[in-house]
Design brief:
Helix content is 68%, strand content 0%. By secondary structure, the chain is an all-alpha fold. The protein has one domain: Orthogonal Bundle (Helix Hairpins).
């Protein structure tokens, strides 16, 4: 399978399928745990950045997306549609959302 030019839905389906194959969805997922695992991947990316380990930094960012796509796939969330809606909402916001800093 070629991973080039996939839609976000296809990425969600792939990431979720792999996670299911590996047993991560054998029982109902704990939402708090699932979300914190995503946060943990970002923390690991920060650690890679802090250590100036570019390869690890990139890998941990990829892990973040994989966990997000898996979660969206498992919950049946059309994340592409949600991103479009949020971008349209953000376009209507004022410069820096009205914040001074």
């Amino acid at each position: 399978m070629s991973y080039e030019n996939l839609t976000l839905k296809e990425w969600c389906d792939i990431c979720h399928s792999i996670a299911r194959e590996k047993g991560f969805w054998d029982s109902k997922r704990n939402m708090g745990e699932a979300l914190m695992l995503i946060v943990t991947e970002l923390a690991e990316a920060m650690e890679g950045h802090r250590r100036q380990d570019e390869a690890n930094f990139r890998e941990e960012l990829a892990d973040t997306f994989i966990r997000l796509f898996d979660l969206c796939g498992g919950l049946g969330i059309d994340i592409q549609a949600e991103i479009v809606k949020k971008c349209e909402k953000n376009k209507q916001r004022p410069y820096k959302h009205g914040k001074i800093c």
